[in-house]
Amino acid sequence: MRLLVPGRSGLPALADLDDAALFRAYACAEERWVRSNMVTSLDGGATGPDGRSGSINNDADHVVFEVLRALSHVVVVGAGTVRAEGYPPLSVDDSLVALRRAAGLPDVLPLVAVSNRGTVPPTLSGCRDGRALLATTASAPGLEPARDDLGAANVLVCGDDEVDLHVLLDALHARGLDHVLTEGGPGLLGSFLAAGAIDELCYTVVPRVVGAGPPRTVGADGTPADLDLELLVEQDGTLMGRWFVRR
Ligand SMILES: NC(=O)c1ccc[n+]([C@@H]2O[C@H](COP(=O)([O-])OP(=O)(O)OC[C@H]3O[C@@H](n4cnc5c(N)ncnc54)[C@H](OP(=O)(O)O)[C@@H]3O)[C@@H](O)[C@H]2O)c1
User: Fold this and answer.
1) CA angle 24, 28, 33 (to 5 degrees)
2) What pTM did the predictor assign?
């Protein structure tokens, strides 16, 4: 993996990046930081024709995807994506556990599913050990069943009728979960952008065109934002970058 734009990483341009260098390249300097990681086809598609991002991502994307998880305190995902992609409770990739520990991060990587309806996605159902959290609202029809399913401590009530993402981020902060990674989907990323709650977008651009059918990577709520390129990495024609939201 070649470093095309080093940004503030302190690494030399065109360096070959191993996992340790990727940890350095993607590190967050701030105490509280929210970033999103998405993969897109060259023509802006969020999925392949099968409706899953797994059909457009590739080996290069997978490497950075795992590094971003390993650098995070918590992963926040829309319930639609948890259902579409079948997310189980997460664990850090074995090859990155030592780097994660050296960075002072705990072994556990909780996953938060965001759902206005309060529906626990089937793949998280019954997980009561704190690796699966649900963010929902006080009026959600699924609130009480979700508490029974995941345990009350693992259900975060973040608003009355709609999940307020700032309330969610404060609830995570109260648990010491300050480096937040959201992996979408487009609906949730649109809400994060609309709420002004995103610091950084990480995008993987795969050299592939999918046509007009698949959704774009930012959903209907997404508000325009200007970004500054911080870092750019390339492997086999796939580009992976960090863009900071301009304040
Ligand atoms: N290209 C990529 O990197 C990428 C990443 C992720 C997903 N995807 C793809 O995107 C598709 C899913 O898209 P999507 O837009 O439906 O995903 P999504 O945002 O994950 O899911 C939408 C659902 O999540 C909940 N939700 C989202 N935003 C919310 C908010 N602000 N407040 C409360 N609940 C919220 C709602 O769940 P309830 O209905 O339960 O209330 C909503 O119906 C899948 O095909 C997936 O494969 C692509």
Assistant:
1) 160
2) 0.98
